Every structure is written in structure tokens, then in C-alpha cells.
Predict the 3D structure of the following.
Amino acid sequence: MAVQQTTYRDALRLALSEAMTKDENVIVMGEEVGRYGGAYGVTKDLIKEFGPERVIDTPISEAAIVGAAVGAAMTGLRPVAELMYVDFIGMTMDQLANQAAKIRYMFGGQIGVPMVLRTQGGTGRSAGAQHSQSLEGYIMHTPGLRLAMPATVEDAYHLLRQSLQQPDPVVFIEHKGLYTMKGALDPDAAPAGWGEATVLREGDDLVIVTYSRQVHHALEAAETLAGAHGINVTVVDLRTLNPLDFDTIRPLVEAAGRAMVVSEGVMTCGVAAELSARITEECFDFLEEPVVRVAGEDIPISVSPLLEQNSVPTPELIVDIARKMFA
Amino acid sequence: MKNTTLPQLYEDMRRVRTFEERVGELFVRGKSAGSMLHLSIGEESAAVGVCAHMRDGDTFTTHHRGHGIFLARGADPDRMMAEIAGKESGYCHGKGGSMHIADMGLGHLGANAIVGGGIPSVVGAGLSARHKKSGAISVAFFGDGATGQGILYESMNMAALWKLPVIFVCINNQYGMGTRIDQATANPNLHERAAAFGLAARTVDGLDVEDVADAAADLIAGAREGRPAFLSIDCYRFFGHARKDKSPYRDEAEEAEGRKKDPVLRARDKLISDGLMSEAELDALDTRVASEMDGSIDFAVAGNEPQMQSMFRDVYAPSQPEPEPVRTRLDRILAQEPR
Ligand SMILES: Cc1ncc(C[n+]2csc(CCOP(=O)(O)OP(=O)(O)O)c2C)c(N)n1
């Protein structure tokens, strides 16, 4: 297949449709995924291609959707369950954390739960405190769950294909602010491997480690820092938070001596806290400054667009903090 | 309790309808905060009919389509509109918006954007009412889609077990987003499920607000005496799920048929045919309501944006320290002298 210009949303759909064509055990289930085509349009028309037996509309029953996916995965299907918003993950947490995540371990390795839970998170649509969170920390905090968070059009496609190859449950979190983002996609090009981070920009002065939409904020900030302030930044896109590719991060931080972690999730006990602790532990002797976490404020998200936008990292904030690291 | 005569019920429904029409305009003008706006046009009899029999001190929770219910309980449309516009002058200072509006003074324990999320609170409110012998009831308003949530059944069981002064009101507008009720439930006779828990359970046609109000009167009277109840109100959601949804999942013929179930027009026609109000009187009333709601739009649009510092307020009680802003924390760390 040739290189195509596409959107994050359509790249996800292509990944699903190809996986379903290749493997008849792949099924998609969730609220509005069929006739409606998904709240954010990702599963549009899949029902026409694969029928209602494989693209299954469910009642508004999050706990049962995830629980049913667990059982289906244990008995030979490859379910892709959709949770309309990551905020609803709390309702499914027993099925996800106590069932899906622990089955392989508790049962002595007899069986795994190869399911993908697709959902979306993040801010940007003034959707209020119950529809705008970044809850990847909950997932990363649960041993047994894999976690993928694509930032680019290519990764929307490749990471979803890779998630569908995993032997264990994968939580796949899209960003609601990225669905209409355009980019080039070559489905045949060899992608970075599952669990590998990518370096999207190289610079000697500072390493920014980030994922999901904040990758774009970091890249924008890096441009400004290089252009206006002579600070050269490496930007690492983690792609998956579990597995976490520390082998890519370590030498970069050791070389630059300065590291910043950027995450939209709240700062306290969040993903950024974990990454920063890891970098500090492993690269301590090389650091010229404390690792800084630029993360979401420790508050719920407001519906007011003004408060919403300013409660998560912005390119301006990244630039500002980076400059202070060199002051 | 309110005056429950048809003229009053009509006026309350007209206010809800007009408010919602104005909210729709606010959205189209790009003045509402956010992408999420769910109008309850077509569902006015449910809000007004049930609220007519609620008293001061009663409490309630609503779902994401709850503007009409709150208004019917006496909300100030100015402060509601301002909240929907994300302004400081709104009920929740612009933090909640359309889906998270609340006012404890009016017994509104909160609108909820989690389907089913507000249902169990009424069990707790019922416990409070009984404990304090306040005579109050608590009402959970939710859509038919919420009947897919296990929490409803857990809550109904507790309410029945403990004989709480509680009512579960299901506003059955036939759809949860794009899914018709018969595509989401094995048994669309929703009251039968509630009856299985021992609740007083009924379904009523929402076309006629007086029918809704009568059913609510009965069930609420029972609830006040410790007989929890379930009321399902059949109606039709005139517009899409949210403001941008053009409802491609329903055909025009169905929508035209559905919109005939207009409780506001029905009440208007009845007022005229029963000789209770003249067309001229009704027109005057409608005009008065329209200008009230225009005023609310002006109030909302003119309101101030919240102050940035307010973002850290109310995470905890005012007596507690506010969270330290990320920027302050980072500035402090980066100001440290090197080793
Ligand atoms: C727990 C949860 N799941 C899904 C959603 C997304 N969602 C919002 S409203 C809605 C449909 C709800 O239908 P219903 O309860 O009948 O209320 P209606 O919209 O018809 O008033 C859905 C699926 C949500 N907000 N919360």
C-alpha cells in the first residue's frame, strides 16, 4: 500500500479494518461503535464491512463491556472493546484491574487476556471534569496492563496493529484533540517496534520525554527554544508507557544532562512522577538540574475553556520552564 | 408544593422550552462553553410534571440532559445560562457547565455527565431524610440509557430494602445517543424491572403533563411514607443527542411522528379548548417568557470569564490549602542554587 495522507481517526479505522480482514476472531464492541460509527467516528462503516456480529453495539454498560471482552479474550476471540471516554474507566476498574490484569498471574500462567481496550482522553473540547481527564496513571499503576498512547498518525495505525498482536490486555488511549490531525501514513513501512520510543527531534541541550498530544506541544516548544533562545532539544515520544523504553531515554539524558518530562495528567503520583523518578535514579550522576515535571495541575478540569487550557501544559509553559533550566 | 393547575404547568413547560431554544442559539453563536450541550426539548412534561409535586427540602440529581428539571425546580435562568457559557456568574462559577450544574439551596445535588452516576446519591439522600425525619424525598432523574447500568439496580434494591423516601424517574426519550431502546434492552418495559425489586412502578405517557403530574403525585406521596417508586415517562427527544448530532440514525418520518408528541403544544391546545386561557393570553405569556430568556442570554454573554486563580479554588474546602500551581512549584525548584 502506498503512502497516503490521512487523519489520526482514519488511520485508526484502517488498522481496525485490516486486522478484522486478516483475523476473523477480531471483534469490535462498545457503545455506538456500529450503526453510529463511534462517538468520535473511528469505527465508522466498519459494521457495513464486517456486519453486526463482529461490530457489536452494546448497552451503556461499561463494566459488562470490559468484563465480556475479558471472557471473549480468554476463549479465543480478539476483542477490541471501546470505552467512549477514559473517564468511564472507573466504572470498569474491577473488570480491568482485578480481572483482566491479574488472570495470567493468579492462574499461574495458564491463560492470558489478549484484548484491546480502546478509549480516548485528554482536554481540548471544554467537556468538563468528567470527560476531560488523562487517566493513564491509573493504568500504568496496575501491573498486568499494557498501555499504548499514540501521538502521530503513523502510530495511530502502527500501535493499534501492534496492540492487536499482544498476548496481554492493552489499554489504548487516543487523544480527543488529535482525531482530525493529518499526516502521512505508509502502512507497509517498518514501524518502531512495540515498546520502543522514538526520537522525533534531536538536540544536545535538553531531553523532553513525553507522549500523546503533548508530543506536539513539546515539538512546538522545541522549535521556539531553538529559534529564539538557542536551546537545542531532543523530543522523545514514548509511544507505549508500558512497556517503557528506558534504553532509549538513558543515553540521551546522560548526554544532555538535562531532562524534562511532559504529561497532561495531573502531576501528583502521575506518569510524569514515575518517569522523573526513573530518570533521576538511573541518570543521577549525569544531571545538571533536577528533572522537571511539566504536568497537569492537581485539580479537576473546568468547563471554562480559559481554565481548561491553562490547567495542562502548553507550549508556552514548556518554553518558559526550559529557559529557566538554563538561567 | 407548587400550583399544579394546567396554566401553571403550561407556563413552567414554556419556560423550559424557551430556555432550551435560547441555549441552542447560544451554542450556535459560539458562546456556550464547550462541545457538549444536550437539549431536552420534547421532554418538558417529565421535568415539570414531577417537579410540580416536589417541595422545598426535597433533593434530586439529574443526568446530562437536566436543564429543564433544574429550571422546573426554580433555578434562576440567568445563572444557568451563565454557567452554560462557562462564566464566573454561573451557578458553579464556570467550572461545571451544562452537564455539571447544581445548586444545593434548591436541593439540586448535581447534574452528572456519567450515565447513571447520580442515581445512587438519592439512596443516601433518602437515608438522610429518614434519619433526620425531614419528610423530604429524593428524586433521581435519568434517561432510558441509564437502565443499562448496574448501579441503577443496586440502588433500587437498597431503596426497596430500606424503604427509603426515594423515586427513580426514567425519562424514556427512546434513545441513548444513536441506540433505540429496543436495541439496548431485552425488555423495554422498564417499570417491570423496578417492580421486581418491590418498588411501586409505573409507566406514563409524557404527552400529557397532567397525566405525568398525577402519576408523580401518587408515587411521591407514597415515597414520603417510605414506599420507594419508579416512574418511567415516555417521550421523544426532538433533536439530536447533542447539539451537533443531526441524528442520522432516525428517519424523517419517525422524527415527524415523534414530534407530534409535543407536551407543550398539547397543554396549550387543551388550555384553549377547555376555555381556561385564550389564545391572546397564551401569546402574551409566551412573549413574556421569551423576553425573560432573552435577558438571560444577555446576562450570560455579558458575564466575566473566571479569574485564572479560581482554578485552584474548591478542590478542597476553603479552610484547606489550595493545590500549589505547577508553575509556582517549578519556579521554586529551578530557583535553587546548584550544588
Ligand atoms: C458512563 C457513561 N457512558 C457513556 C457516556 C456517553 N453518553 C453520554 S449520554 C449517552 C446516552 C444516554 O442516554 P440516556 O441515558 O437515555 O439519556 P438521553 O441522552 O437519552 O437523555 C451516552 C452513551 C457517558 N456520558 N457516561
Q: What stands out?
A: Chain A touches chain B through 51 residues (CB under 8 Å).
